[in-house]
Design a protein that fits this description.
The complex is a heterodimer of chains A (112) and B (112).
Chain A: E1 4-7, E2 10-14, E3 19-25, E4 31-37, E5 43-50, E6 55-58, E7 61-66, E8 71-76, E9 85-92, E10 101-102, E11 106-111
Parallel strand pairs in A: 2-11
Antiparallel strand pairs in A: 1-3, 3-8, 4-5, 4-9, 6-7, 7-8, 9-10, 9-11
Chain B: E1 5-7, E2 10-13, E3 19-24, E4 31-37, E5 44-50, E6 53-57, E7 64-68, E8 74-78, E9 87-94, E10 102-103, E11 107-111
Parallel strand pairs in B: 2-11
Antiparallel strand pairs in B: 1-3, 3-8, 4-5, 4-9, 5-6, 7-8, 9-10, 9-11
Chain lengths: 112, 112
């Protein structure tokens, strides 16, 4: 069953603007990860945030995690046309090797 | 850097036929995961293997089976194919104790 819901389901912004996507989940987690998927292609790992972390940065990406609200957000700053893709959050529940449960994804379109 | 390899990349089958999907993990990764992504859906976990033993099982139909071999590659065998099996099938790998899963490009299966 689906662990996460992502919000919004689709987002269109102008190139150069910031994009924010949200993810909510239902059960306790060990880690939350964000993945990018270009249309019909593979999933690319973007960033991982652990349950004891509140914020993490990687380049133009900023991820926050609020375990009390069971939610996370992904911020992409200074968006580029190449950022056009679907973005999924995925959670795992136990340390080590554990299946990922994906959210429904946000389809991001960057308008040049 | 070496990535996860999946073959074939595309596969067309008739109903009731069988299909075998192959996955070659990143070198020194001993855990393999299989996911299914239907059109417009989020990836759903099917099954995983660690050190050639099944480690977790998700929503995998009884018509499907999988195994991991001594060289750590894995195969997903699908029998009595149904139209609803048409999807992208992803394999991911990770080293033991590491949470990040690295995804292959996927096999796109179309059942006619």
């Amino acid at each position: 069953s689906q662990q996460g819901e992502e919000d919004p389901q689709a987002l269109s912004i102008q190139e150069g603007e910031n994009a924010t996507m949200n993810c909510s989940y239902k059960t306790s987690i060990n880690n939350l990860q964000w993945y990018r998927q270009n249309s019909g292609r593979g999933l690319v790992h973007l960033i991982l945030i652990r349950s004891n972390e509140r914020e993490k940065h990687s380049g133009r990406l900023r991820v926050t995690l609020d375990t009390s609200k069971k939610s996370s957000s992904l911020l992409i700053t200074a968006s580029r046309a190449a950022d056009t893709a679907s973005y999924f959050c995925a959670t795992d529940r136990d340390f080590g090797n554990e299946k990922l449960t994906f959210g429904t994804g946000t389809r991001l379109t960057i308008i040049p | 850097a070496a990535g996860v390899i999946q073959s074939p990349r595309h596969l067309i089958k008739e109903k009731r036929e069988t299909a075998t999907l192959k996955c070659y993990p990143i070198p020194r990764h001993d855990t393999v995961y299989w996911y299914q992504q239907g059109p417009g859906q989020d990836p759903q976990f099917l099954i995983s293997f660690y050190e050639k033993m099944q480690s977790d099982k998700g929503s995998i139909p009884d018509r499907f089976s999988a195994q991991q071999f001594s060289d750590y590659h894995s195969e997903l065998n699908m029998s009595s194919l149904e139209l609803g099996d048409s999807a992208l099938y992803f394999c991911a790998s990770s080293p033991q104790g590491r949470e990040t899963q690295y995804f292959g490009p996927g096999t796109r299966l179309l059942v006619l």
